[in-house]
Amino acid sequence: METDNFEPWERTESLPQNLYFYGLESGVGNITVLLKGLDTEDKILKLTFIGVLSYRVTQETARTKTIYENPNLRGFKVATNSEYLRWFKEESAGMFDDMNLMHYFISNIDNIIDIIGGPPVKVEWVSA
Description:
Layout: E1 7-8, E2 19-27, E3 30-37, E4 40-50, E5 54-59, H1 64-69, E6 75-79, H2 83-91, E7 102-107, E8 111-117, E9 121-127
Antiparallel strand pairs: 1-6, 2-3, 3-4, 4-9, 5-8, 6-7, 7-8
């Protein structure tokens, strides 16, 4: 069985880890994830993913097995090889194999967001 190769997502290293889900905006091929911090109520972290091919949002308690088996997955991670990416590539019959697809994994205090897409990702703080 192949293992996932999640690594810290460098673009988010200085962000607080105590963020909670505030919203999600979906457009054609774009997803914007909105997170708020317990200590940053006046600001919203806005993560805009361009070229999104798949995403899922799951309550954290429904992913207990994932978190229990991989406690280092808290926060913001990225992978070029993961179970979700392998599933996507199989389902799409290799149609996107020539793309530089990434699996972005966002674990916040109330859910887990998985996004498959390519770079770039826009990361910014906006006023609440």
